[in-house]
Amino acid sequence: MKNLFEKVDSFHLSDIKNPTHPSIFIEESAYDILILVLPYKEGKHLKMESHAFVFDHESYYYFDKQKAEFVNFETMQRVYEFLNEKTNHVMKLVASIHESIDLMEEALYDNANFSNFMHYWLSNKKDLSRIQRVLTLGDEVLSQFIETYLKAEDFLAIHFQDIHEHIGRTNRSALLATDKLNNLYNFYTSRSNEKMNRTIYLLTILSGIFLPLHFVAGYFGMNSQGLPFSDIAYGTSLVTLIMASCAVAMAGLILFLKKRL
C-alpha cells in the first residue's frame, strides 16, 4: 500500500495514525477519510478506539494501527460489517452499564449501609460522560458520511443508516442511564442528609439534658468555702439527686415540646 501512503497528504496521514484523534469525515478530490471513534472496555477500564478508513476511486482501505499499514477491504460491504461489529460491542457495553446501575439501585434500596455507592456512582458517571461525548460526535460524522455517499452505486445506504440509528439509540440509552444515576444520587444524598439530621437532633437532645448537669457539677465543684451541703454527711447524695432530677425534668420538657411541635 505504498501508493496510498504517497497519495494521502502527510497532515491527513498523521490524523489517521493518531490513536486519540476524534471522529471526523474529510472529503478530498483524490480520496475521502472517515475516522470513527468508538468506546470499548478493556478489563475494568473504558477506552476509546479510533477506526480510520480511506476511500479512493479504486477501493476501500482500513488503517491497522498495530501493524501501521493499510488493509484493503475491497468492498463497502466489508466496511459495513466491520463497523457493525464494533457498534454491536458498544451497544452491549452500554447495556452492561444499565445492568450495573440496576444492581446499584437494588443494593441502595435494600441496604441502608451501601458504603461503596459513591465509588460505583463516580465510575459509571465518568464512563457514561465519555461515551456520550464520543457517540454524539460519531453520530454527526456518520450522518455526514452517509449524506455524501448516498448516491454512490455500491453504497449500502440502508445498512449504514442502520449503524447510524444504532449509534444514536445507544447515545440516547447512555443519556437515560445518566438520568438514572442522577436520580440515585439524589436519593442517596437525601437519605444521607436525613441520617445527619437525626444525628444532630440526638446530639442536641443530649446537650439539652446534660447542660444543667454541667452547671450543677461546675457549681458544686468550685474550690471555695460555704457551698451548700458541704457540711452535711449525705451532701453528695443530695447533689446527685438534684442532678438526676434536673436530667429527668429536662428530658420531660424536651418530650413535651416535641409533642407540641
Automatic annotation (TrEMBL):
Could you tell me where this protein is found in the cell?
Cell membrane
Instruction: Name the InterPro entries for this protein.
Output: CorA_cytoplasmic_dom, CorA_TM1_TM2, MgTranspt_CorA/ZnTranspt_ZntB
Q: Which UniProt keywords apply?
A: Cell inner membrane, Cell membrane, Ion transport, Membrane, Transmembrane, Transmembrane helix, Transport, Zinc
Q: Where are the transmembrane segments?
A: 200-220, 232-257
A single Gene Ontology CC annotation of this entry is: plasma membrane
Report the GO molecular function annotations.
cobalt ion binding; cobalt ion transmembrane transporter activity; magnesium ion binding; magnesium ion transmembrane transporter activity
Cited Pfam families: CorA (PF01544)
Main localisation: membrane
Lipid bilayer topology: Multi-pass membrane protein
Q: Which family does it belong to?
A: Belongs to the CorA metal ion transporter (MIT) (TC 1.A.35) family.
**Protein's recorded name:** Putative metal ion transporter
